[in-house]
């Protein structure tokens, strides 16, 4: 039998003392590096429900469901953890300063029931058109737009009323009072097609004349 | 002597990907070899036509788990070829760093598998242990051990943070020492010399005739490397040398790969040390109508991507050619004449990557597979026989 070469022997002895390279995983939890890309998680206080992440997601792991029949209509943002490829596009394209959805350090995503446990959801309040009842957008999204375009938002009652309601500057009483005085349709929260139709076609209210 | 046909596959004995080799042997010697492709059609090219330009890198990244940077790199180069934009220097450096990291881990993976296959399980364990360090480095740089998601047309998605660089360099340096020991251990081993030298020789002329790529061609003395021939990224800005050996046998292919790992480490290190400051994304505007090609020197050879644009958000045609597609036919020249016991390591010595290659199935309209080369030859022979009979020559 040939003697093993010295350098391999040294490595073998070293390995003997350093112990196994592999970690004792299930017993000792694995902590990933802070740069690790784990499961994306929504922050319901920062997310505005604009659906940019759904649009950009290359794997189609993000979808939404609008529940308009509820007393307070809601948009439910759904992130499917089993379809997600952890690319980080959602975070990169998030309009809310990349904070509405953020990659976390969470990587232990195994589950038993795919129908019940394979997704995570958050809920956002929706704003509906007063005429046709269609979805205009999430409340936070309209506020986000109003804040972003500044005073230009006052050209659009849908935007500024959604924003001012939050501060308590506009309440339902004021709006109903305005409705009796002037062109009520001007003060409605409307979707874009309804507003176009209203501006173009509707007759001025009789009280205004 | 009676001929025996030994089928290897559909699963190749070394790498568990669908592949069918049929070896015709006389006694112990292989007299003919046939490769059958097309067990795994994944529709990647068609899929990428349904994605936007920014989403396609994630699709092509998943063509192959090992070359998860090569395909996006070639793809983004093709898209940038269409739009003719210039990439920020920092992005070029980051791309180079990621590409070289991938080359290191791919070569180490192959080396470990080859060791395992030859019965050297210690090599397998040690090399894969080293590979873990590289994968950790990639996790720090890109956020994942594999499928780095770093590439986008016009730049990179993620910046390398300054505070990570010293730690990464320390980690790379720690690999070099052990790797050096391993290199000497492999290249000095008399058994490996006896086992690998002189088998599966791919002659220089054959390598040129078969258009072999990457380490397969460089082991046969054909100095062919996209990184040197048409420099891109930061490859012309840092010092490195192309590894070329002359004999073309399996041992030379091992040597080329082992030495290339050291070159890659030095490229990666000098790129990290001289990382220029600046933006990482050129913010590509709309893709103009046109067509572009992108090539990248993947660990296995040149990866080629062709993209055609009609000015919309999605590519109208995307063609991928992986290096194994060119390297696989060289088995006709290397395996024939070898002993059956050597056949598998010779077939594995090109570092075949079927998941890169296996995207194409030739179909007729009625959905039946067209004949393979062997059947076509048989038909041609039958026709000759028929003609001979008709002409009364027999």
CATH architecture of chain B: Orthogonal Bundle
Measured distance between first and last alpha carbons of chain A: 113 Å
Shape of chain B: globular
- Count of structural domains of chain B: 1
Report the radius of gyration of chain B as a whole number of Å: 22 Å
Into which percent range does the helicity of residues of chain B fall?
40-55%
Note the quaternary state here.
heterodimer
Layout: helices, strands, pairs:
The complex is a heterodimer of chains A (about 210) and B (about 400).
Chain A lengths: L5 H13 L21 E3 L9 H5 L5 E6 L6 E7 L8 H5 L7 E3 L10 H4 L1 E10 L6 E4 H11 L7 H11 L4 H10 L10 H10 L8
Chain B lengths: L2 E6 L11 E7 L2 E8 L7 H6 L6 H6 L8 H14 L5 H30 L2 H22 L8 E2 L2 E2 L8 H24 L1 H7 L7 H6 L4 H5 L7 H4 L20 H24 L16 E9 L2 E9 L7 E5 L1 H5 L3 H4 L5 H9 L5 H4 L15 H18 L4
Antiparallel strand pairs in B: 1-2, 2-3, 4-5, 6-7, 7-8
Helix pairs in contact in B: 4-5, 4-11, 5-6, 6-11
């Amino acid at each position: 039998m040939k003697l093993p070469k010295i350098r391999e022997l040294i490595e073998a002895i070293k390995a003997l003392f350093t112990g196994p390279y592999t970690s004792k995983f299930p017993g000792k939890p694995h902590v990933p590096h802070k740069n690790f890309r784990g499961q994306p998680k929504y922050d319901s206080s920062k997310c505005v429900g604009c659906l940019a992440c759904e649009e950009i997601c290359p794997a189609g792991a993000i979808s939404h469901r609008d529940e308009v029949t509820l007393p307070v209509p809601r948009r439910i943002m759904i992130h499917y953890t089993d379809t997600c490829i952890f690319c980080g596009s959602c975070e990169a394209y998030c309009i809310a300063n990349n904070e509405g959805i953020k990659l976390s350090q969470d990587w232990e995503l195994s589950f038993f029931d795919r129908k019940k446990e394979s997704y995570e959801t958050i809920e956002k309040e929706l704003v509906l058109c007063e005429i046709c009842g269609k979805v205009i957008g999430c409340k936070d999204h309209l506020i986000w737009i109003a804040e972003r375009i500044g005073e230009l938002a006052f050209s659009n009652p849908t935007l500024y009323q959604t924003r001012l309601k939050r501060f308590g500057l506009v309440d339902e009483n004021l709006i109903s009072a305005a409705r009796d005085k002037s062109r009520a349709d001007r003060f409605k929260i409307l979707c874009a097609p309804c507003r176009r139709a209203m501006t173009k076609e509707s007759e001025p209210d009789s009280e205004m004349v | 002597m009676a001929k025996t046909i030994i089928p290897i596959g559909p699963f190749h004995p070394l790498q568990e990907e669908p592949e069918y080799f049929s070896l015709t042997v006389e006694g112990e010697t292989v007299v003919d070899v046939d490769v059958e492709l097309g067990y795994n059609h994944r529709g990647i090219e068609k899929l990428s036509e349904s994605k936007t330009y920014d989403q396609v890198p994630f699709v092509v990244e998943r063509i192959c788990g090992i070359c998860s940077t090569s395909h996006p790199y070639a793809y983004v180069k093709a898209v940038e070829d269409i739009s003719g934009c210039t990439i920020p220097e920092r992005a070029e450096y980051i791309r180079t760093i990621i590409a070289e990291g991938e080359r290191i881990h791919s070569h180490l993976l192959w080396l470990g598998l080859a060791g395992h296959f030859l019965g050297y399980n210690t090599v397998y364990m040690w090399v894969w242990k080293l590979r873990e360090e590289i994968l950790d480095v990639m996790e720090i740089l890109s956020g994942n051990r594999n499928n780095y998601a770093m590439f986008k047309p016009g730049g990179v998605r993620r910046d390398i943070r300054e505070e990570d660089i010293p730690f990464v360099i320390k980690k790379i340096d720690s690999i070099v020492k052990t790797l050096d020991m391993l290199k000497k251990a492999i290249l000095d081993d008399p058994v490996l010399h006896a086992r690998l030298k002189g088998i599966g020789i791919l002659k220089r002329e054959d390598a040129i005739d078969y258009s072999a790529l990457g380490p397969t061609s460089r082991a046969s003395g054909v100095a062919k490397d996209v990184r040197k021939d048409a420099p891109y990224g930061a490859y012309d800005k840092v010092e490195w040398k192309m590894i070329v050996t002359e004999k073309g046998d399996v041992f030379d292919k091992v040597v080329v790969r082992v030495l290339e790992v050291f070159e890659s480490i030095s490229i990666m290190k000098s790129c990290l040390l001289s990382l220029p400051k600046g933006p990482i994304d050129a913010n590509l505007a709309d893709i103009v109508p046109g067509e572009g090609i992108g090539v990248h020197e993947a660990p296995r050879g040149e990866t080629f991507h062709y993209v055609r644009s009609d000015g919309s958000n999605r590519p109208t045609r995307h063609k991928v050619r992986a290096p194994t597609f060119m390297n696989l036919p060289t088995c006709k020249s290397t395996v024939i004449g070898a002993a059956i016991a050597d056949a598998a390591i010779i077939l594995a010595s090109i570092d075949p990557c079927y998941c890169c290659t296996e995207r194409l199935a030739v179909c007729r309209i009625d959905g039946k597979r067209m004949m393979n080369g062997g059947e076509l030859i048989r038909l041609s022979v039958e026709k000759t026989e028929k003609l001979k009979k008709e002409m009364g020559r027999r």
